[in-house]
């Protein structure tokens, strides 16, 4: 049942993203993706079981998760309603950065639970790396759009440094996963 819920969530995300590309369907696309996310969260909260068959559902954990969702929803809704349309690209980059930061933090919290599981660990570290890059890139985009960062910061031979960093990250990923 949970796999079907996840499939439904994935399909609604893809359809919602597709609908975001046209102004007349963007609102419905956003709502469709939100419905998919809601169904996936509820399914995970109430149907997920660990591989050892144990559940970790207790009232306090569910209350904390639902409370965090409520706080995020209310603060995001209020922020989105208050922002001027000309500031919308800044808000989108900031929200995207928060998504990347969340992915990185989830990777950090799941890392020690998956030591010795090469497959899961490789995905966790990839999520950590991609989330960190997404966060930093989105914050830079926000600062540029906001006018705070007017002059680009360039290190000497930055292309070479970026490539060396990428190779280093891949090497570290290999070391941690084997």
What does this structure look like?
Helices cover 77% and strands 0% of the residues. With 178 residues, it is mainly α. The chain has a domain at 84-178. Helix 4 (88-111) packs antiparallel against helix 5. The longest helix is centred in the last third of the chain and has 29 residues, at 118-146. It is globular, with a radius of gyration of 19 Å. The model has no long low-confidence stretch (mean pLDDT 86).
Silhouette: globular
Q: Count every beta strand, where a strand is a DSSP E run of 2 or more residues.
A: 0
Q: Which sequence of SSEs, written as H and E, runs from N to C?
A: HHHHHH
Task: Tell me the Rg in angstroms.
Answer: 19 Å
Query: From the helix content, strand content and strand pairing, which structural class follows?
Result: mainly alpha
DSSP helix count?
Answer: 6
| Largest beta-sheet characterization | none
What proportion strand?
under 5%
How far apart are the first and last residues' alpha carbons, in Å? 33 Å
Flag low-confidence runs: none
Mean pLDDT: 86
Helix amount: over 70%
Summary keywords:
77% helix
Compact summary:
By secondary structure, the chain is mainly α. Helices cover 77% and strands 0% of the residues.
Write the layout of secondary structure elements.
Elements: H1 2-19, H2 26-47, H3 59-82, H4 88-111, H5 118-146, H6 158-177
Helix pairs in contact: 1-2, 4-5, 5-6
